[in-house]
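Technical appendix A lists one of the benchmark inputs used to test multi-chain prediction within the project. The record comprises two sequence entries:
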Amino acid sequence: MERLPLEKKVLSENDRLAAGLRARFREHGILCFNLISSPGSGKTSLLERTLESLPQNERVGILTGDIQTDNDARRLARFGFPVKQITTGGTCHLDARMIERGLEGWRLLDIDLLLIENVGNLVCPASYDLGEAAKIVVLSVTEGEDKPLKYPSIFFKAKLLVLNKVDLLPYVPFDIDAAEENARCIHPGMDIVRVSCTTGDGIQPWLAWLEQRRHLQLAARAESVVPERARAALR
Amino acid sequence: MERLPLEKKVLSENDRLAAGLRARFREHGILCFNLISSPGSGKTSLLERTLESLPQNERVGILTGDIQTDNDARRLARFGFPVKQITTGGTCHLDARMIERGLEGWRLLDIDLLLIENVGNLVCPASYDLGEAAKIVVLSVTEGEDKPLKYPSIFFKAKLLVLNKVDLLPYVPFDIDAAEENARCIHPGMDIVRVSCTTGDGIQPWLAWLEQRRHLQLAARAESVVPERARAALR
């Protein structure tokens, strides 16, 4: 009972910081995604596949969250892009202040795409805005097709569902069509890509989704820039 | 910052309620386990395998937690033992008060073994005592062998690690010996069983572990009863 008002206060403080981050990302033309899943669904593997596919002149930054260890940052650093580990030391999610601190020392003008890998947890990270353009939820086919119904908040909030480990479909009792149906029951119109980070299947559609979001962002920016110029001309 | 004192207060209130539950369990000779894992690691499947293996005259009760849906209670009810779903409606863990309420309407004298399936979350449930005799952590081989290092709290607190889905070992890059080593690095002397709820491999050792805990509890009770009787005789 008594917890609610403080939880609201913490979340509204987080919202304030996240709004600041979002404004900075917009100002510097950074497209930011927040990847959320259970532990072991394959967020880091998806990032590995992504980074190995991007040209070296891509201006990507990665913040990766964990309760303990810098394993993920070490795995991701070998692709040559700037990577920073955020170790929460017990906290079950990343919050906007951790992202602010994580960005310290980076020139935001040098980044076009910021990928945030959240702590492995399908529940709590859904409540914390990090200033991202979109949340992305990763669900692996070993986890059961009813997960969108059991953990609706993140499926409702994420723009994209990445159904990972499809190479394991022959070995697990997972109905992938039912999983998609359950996700769209919670979030009609949700984008979905099926991938295997092990075989590389589906990585192209995933990269195409990222690219499409980039075009949408550029188009939105262009639209917002034109009226500004028009206004300037009228002054 | 400001969150900590209240979190401590919430946890100490939970500890108080959990101590009450533990006393009631002891009084009624109930052995209680709290199963914790990520979503989809196989807690419900493990319970299904357990319930199908137990004789119908076993006096077992099951409380199963989820944020939404009563899917798990429906899956587990078909074995004929009393099952209740606890739907948290958003909360990322079970707490002692939810267990208290879940037990309402059950005659505790009719239960010998109480199995609690927590919300799928490898982080937050570790902080909440439910009055159990032991926490049990389930990790599936699809999740990566570094999880004990990344989520140390639950591996430190659990008496037993159930390494599930070993039937998938040929298809995933999971080093099961490294996983056990990581778990024992966090918690030396931790018990570990390897199981596949799909094939039934390892279910016998798991049942034997439960049985052994029951004998330990009975032995502890007998020890505590004797001095009481002795005290009574001296009055």
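The radius of gyration of chain A is 18 Å. DSSP finds eight helices and seven strands in chain A. Comparable benchmark entries are summarised in Table A2.
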